[in-house]
Amino acid sequence: MNPDTGTCLDSELQRLSRRLDLLALAVEQSPFGVVVMNLKGEVEYCNPAFTSMTGYALNEIAGHTAHPWNPEGTSDSIYDSLLTSQSIGEPWRGDVEARRKDGSTYWERQMVSTLRNTDGKPTHLIAVKEDISERKLRSKNYEQTRHLQEQALASSSNGIMITRSDADDHSIVYVNPAFERITGYRAEEVIGLEGRFLVRDDLAQPDLENIRTALRDKHEGQATLRNYRKDGSLFWNELHIAPVRDLTGAATTHFVSVINDISERVSYQQALEYQANHDSLTGLANRNLLTDRIEQGIALAKRHKSILGVMLLDLDHFKLINDASGHLAGDALLKEVANRLRDCVRETDTVARLGGDEFVIILTDLPQPDDIDQIAQKLLTALARPIEVAGRDVFVTASIGASFYPRDGDHGEILLRYADMAMYRVKEHGRNSVRQFVPEMGSAAISRLDMEAAMRRGLERGEFLLHYQPKIDLSSHRIIGAEALIRWQHPQIGLVHPIEFIHLAEETGLIIPLGEWVVKEVCLQQVRWREQGLAPMKIGINMSARQFRQEDLAERIAAVFASTQADPTQFILELTESMVMHDVDSNLVALRALKQLGVSLSLDDFGTGYSSLSYLRRFPIDELKIDRSFITDIHTSPDDAAIAGAIVAMARSLGLSVVAEGVETKEQADLLVAMGCNQVQGNYFARPMPERAFTTQLHEQQSGQT
What we know:
The protein is α+β, with helices and mostly antiparallel strands.
């Protein structure tokens, strides 16, 4: 034997031995269970992983052909198939539910293959097993969860719609049965369409932009939309959409939309709103809606520089008809009157019933005030036609009074009051006609009730009250003070504005006790605000000429401060130019006496009088108020703007505060800011309001809500 040949053979045997050792080690340490059987199915080997998996040790199963860890018959069918195959084929693979030695079951993934010799004859069978119980459990749980989700979608009472999320493709891929029920469309009819088909041509819906933004930016969104069913009927849809992301959470693949039919809720809300804003008998606007419509009409007329007409119509001798025919007949008559009035005006106009037999008509965009006479004649002609009541014809006439914005006033309360005065003038002069308000009617209306005596009784009975118009700081838009404005809550004619009684109060001397009441009431109010923890702020009080001429004015006001415990530094006494310039030397003494009390002094309506700058410097004035006549056209009139700017500059040079009155628009406010005026009053920021409403605003501002 060649020594070299023997050496090579030994080396090869050594390498083979090492490979076998490595193979044996790999099988022994494999995490997969391994079982080797002979052709009879007798177990010859199993590795530790198999023992750990099943609980069976090799000495317990060696030589056994029955395999208790496998389901009955599984081994025979697998092994027979593999052993009868005449060629080397694919191993058998499958998942089976197996049983451990302790009787518990588990799932294993098997791969069984045939070991063959070099001649291709089978010699052994080898089974490799992996415990996949946890994986199976997760899969089962996943399937159960998915099934539950599918059932939830299918049984949801809300419509569910799933759409793609591509920039150019939001087509529907799924809808649930509730979607079909709500919309009337079958699933096969909408798959592939985009959800916006439910909106149809009703695209002028502000909330649609919320949905477009959510789809574009791929985030959640919600909207309340008018949608349309297959039969064309409208339903209100409270829509919520949310993105669906892929398993990584990085990309949005779909959107899920929840459709909630809230038609019943909307209908109920609309019914409540209708009841709150409409007269239950006639269906016309009631006082609540009328107030809103007048304010809207004034705002529109202000913007377009047009005329708004307010007509107050009262049926003549309605009480006689009602008493003669009964309330049911009277109600029928009022309904017919309402219908005829409604037919005489445009859709943009408003017809309202105040109550009883009083109606109000708001006419927008009138070319001229005199045009209202033609409209009134049309109304009177319509009412003149006979109305059948309780089986007989009744003839109705009406008295109509009219007022106008901006000629007669700038808010609804005044316009209604003036229209009412004009209507009463018609009643006095024969009825069945129309009259426009003229200023003389105001004093005439009050004189009918003996105004002077009524005012005296009003003071005794506490009929007077104060409204407060906030003073606004332009830099922060916060309330920094207010002006106290007197009102008269007359028991017969309602709320009376000072334009209707202050002049007579001056003439009769009632302005003295009335003015003292105002000072005392403002002092008491300041004390109440202090007790409520509100921050102190200065309140302006208008002084009349007759008040100011009282020799003991300072002593009277000081006595009020002492009796109420009010802080004098929190008050501004407002006087007009004409008052202080009437007798300069005497007034200078009076102003200094007031100033010594600790109050501030304001020159009201500045620019309308004839102030001398030399006197102005001598007066102990703290504040100038620019008259509203210079503010109205400040944004359109260079002259008015120049005057206002000059007043602001002069006031600042003298170290005085300056307040602009009558600010109605943002443009006016912006110009005043540019001029350096930092305090304003006007309806753009706040109208005069009752004490309770003003106090509420102060609390909200102090708590940071405004």
